[in-house]
Amino acid sequence: MYSEKVMDHFMNPRNVGEIENADGVGEVGNAKCGDIMKMYLKIDNGVIVDAKFKTFGCGAAVATSSMATEMIKGKTVEEALKITNKAVAEALDGLPPVKMHCSVLAEEAIKSAIADYMKNRGISLDNDGGDCNACSRRCEDVHEQFDEDSA
């Protein structure tokens, strides 16, 4: 059912934990299955120098979190934003169709943590009202959420 890589990242997850004074923190969840991922990023000169995670969920959720942190370490913020759920699943040699939502959560956790980093630095997320590159949502939705958070 699961590949050897999925099992390895589940049994021996990489980068588990928190980063104190993280530059960006993102938390995402799926109410349907109960999986919750929290990702912490340390970023220096636009490069992700460290990434850690805490995940509550199934083995596939832990494995995709572990793999996602491995994939983004050493990458620029722009490169990390291009990592898709399919890339995470492929890096794990595939996931069962019923578990693909875990790779989606991993992608969303990366983007959420980067959006938090950008917000904390006052970097504009505006993209002419189109989809936000930081989190794949409409920019007005992102800015509305940020406005509510700062109120």
Task: Provide key terms for this protein.
Sufe protein. Chain: A, single chain, 3-stranded antiparallel β-sheet, alpha+beta, 6 helices, disordered C terminus, 151 residues
**H/E series, N to C?**
HEEEHHHHH
Q: Pairing-aware structural class of the strands and helices?
A: alpha+beta
Largest sheet: 3 strands, antiparallel
Which regions are unreliable across 5 or more consecutive residues at pLDDT < 50? 133-151
Going by CATH, the architecture would be Alpha-Beta Complex
Q: Which value, in Å, is the CA radius of gyration?
A: 15 Å
Order of strands across the main sheet: 1-2-3
Please describe what this structure looks like.
- The protein is of the alpha+beta class and 151 residues long.
- The protein has a single domain (4-123), classed as Sufe protein. Chain: A (Alpha-Beta Complex), CATH 3.90.1010.10.
- Helices cover 44% and strands 18% of the residues.
- It has six helices and three strands; from the N terminus they run αβββααααα.
- A three-stranded antiparallel sheet has the order 1-2-3.
- A hairpin with a 4-residue loop joins strand 1 (24-30) and strand 2 (35-44).
- Helix 4 (85-91) crosses helix 5.
- It starts with a helix and ends with a helix.
- 38% of the residues are buried.
- The model is unreliable at 133-151 (pLDDT under 50).
Structure summary:
The protein is of the alpha+beta class. Helices cover 44% and strands 18% of the residues.
List the helices and strands and how they pair.
Elements: H1 4-11, E1 24-30, E2 35-44, E3 47-56, H2 59-72, H3 77-81, H4 85-91, H5 100-120, H6 139-150
Antiparallel strand pairs: 1-2, 2-3
Helix pairs in contact: 1-2, 2-5, 4-5
